[in-house]
Design goal:
With 220 residues, the protein is of the alpha/beta class. It has a single domain, classed as Aldolase class I (TIM Barrel, Alpha-Beta Barrel), CATH 3.20.20.70. 37% of the residues lie in helices and 11% in strands. It is built from eight helices and five strands. The protein has a five-stranded parallel beta sheet with strand order 1-2-3-4-5, covered by helices on one side. Strand 2, helix 4 and strand 3 form a beta-alpha-beta unit. Helix 6 packs across helix 7. The two termini are 15 Å apart. The structure holds iron/sulfur cluster. The site of iron/sulfur cluster has 12 residues, from loops.
Length: 220
């Protein structure tokens, strides 16, 4: 597979480079869209969540935690992106994008406009028609933080049952996604899950155990 992070990628866009040289405006190729500030997790380190750093930063105090893009505005944005020729969109936080009530409609509209999709999610609501909407995304990344249920629950301010739900959602998504959709998990490394405290040390046996029992669903 060609390196998707090549620093030479920009040379695929000679027209855009010429426009920059001529000081002309053009539509962005890629947009990061944050449909809502609402989140169903409460990570202590997060500006958008209601974890234990709540009220500790100006940034957090200035955010309206229940904000979301109104449905009609989202439709307008997508139509504008389609008309302008935007090629790819990542849904991310803000809060948790899958709590956005119009997410499936928005995704389907983008597919009709041939816009490539990707998603950064905590995975809690990655099920049913929400998951299905992303089976043919370019990539999907689940913020996971720990392979240990109690550590995961403590870091994210939720119950341990959420850990098992997210793992089940990841497994289900891995089984049903299109082969070209790249699925990954990421860790925000802190004291509680640092290299010597959990993240990598825990993730490796997690991966190996899955590999032994028929294949790691994430990496094959
Ligand atoms: S899941 Fe993401 S948006 Fe939600 S509280 Fe955690 S880091 Fe913040």
């Amino acid at each position: 597979m060609a390196n998707p992070y090549s620093s030479l990628k920009i040379f695929h866009h000679r027209d855009a480079l010429d426009k920059i040289r001529r000081d002309e405006q053009f539509a962005p190729f890629y947009i990061r869209l944050k449909p809502t500030n609402i989140c169903n997790h409460h990570c202590s380190y997060c500006t958008y969540g209601s974890g234990d750093t709540h009220n500790k930063t100006d940034n957090r105090n200035n955010i309206r935690h229940t904000d979301m893009i109104p449905r009609e505005k989202m439709r307008e944005i997508i139509n504008d992106m389609g008309d302008m020729g935007v090629k790819a969109v990542t849904f991310s936080g803000g809060g948790e994008p899958l709590t956005y009530p119009h997410i499936v409609e928005a995704v389907n509209m983008m597919k009709e406009r041939s816009i490539d999709l990707s998603l950064i999610t905590n995975g809690q609501l990655l099920d049913g028609e929400r998951a299905e909407a992303f089976y043919n995304a370019k990539w999907l990344r689940v913020s996971f933080d720990s392979p240990n249920p109690s550590e995961y629950a403590a870091l994210r301010g939720i119950s341990e049952s959420s850990f098992h739900k997210v793992v089940a959602n990841i497994e289900n998504f891995a089984r049903k996604k299109e082969p070209d959709c790249v699925l990954g998990v990421n860790f925000v490394v802190g004291k509680a899950n640092s290299l010597w405290g959990g993240a990598v040390r825990g993730a490796v046996p997690w991966h190996i155990a899955r590999k032994r029992s028929g294949g790691c669903l994430l990496c094959g």
